[in-house]
Amino acid sequence: MIIKNKNQIDLMREAGILLHKAHMVAKEMCEPGISTEAINAEVEKFITSNDAIPLFKGVPGKVPFPAGCCMSINEAIVHGIPSARKLENGDILSIDIGVRLNGWCSDCACTHAIGEIDEEKQKLMDVTEECLRIAIKRIKPGVKWSKIAKEMSKYARNAGFSVVESLVGHGIGEGLWEAPQVPNYHSRLVRDFKLKQGLVIAVEPMINTGVKSTETLKDHWTIVTKDGKPSAHFEHTIAVTANGSQVLTCGPNGEGWAM
Q: What 3-state DSSP class applies to 159?
């Protein structure tokens, strides 16, 4: 667990503000008829024009991840590869973006409605966003993460949804993935940790309409729901401060989802 000082968190906040602005570039394009590769191209252009690095591009795997954004449509939970597939009315699109600015990382995700969506998808998005909001409200030094994760998962399950357990959040700083792992559910089999001032974590609830089970597509990256039902994903990079949480990936005036 790598603890950051105030100056380091301030640098991560700068990266977070830039990432929020990158998300706003993507949000403005989220309309029927637009391809995810077109959105990705504009986001990458924005990030690099601001002297930052698209953090996900080239991440190692069986094949390196080919884009700066993860674009996951409907049943895709995370790690969807941008493509020529055009967005359609009624889709939901989860966009996950990471940036590195001046050596420091930020990671953030949001699910968008494309045109008019049905009530179930809207409820799914609302519940997933609220799970992230629960974490933001409860984070403070001395609290065990399991207590927060238990409340998040209970809220989702009481709403009739399932919580993805095969994917978790993570610590973040100079590296995209740092200790500890940050699950969105509580289990005695998962290693717990106590929140400490200066810890920075990426909290990212992934909630499914149907079963929690997942599978990976043949592209080696896109992870989808086993039953083909929709999933939503919201994420913020959050610092633990003496007074509670500081969301590093909201806008410069504190605007953003789950705030």
A: coil
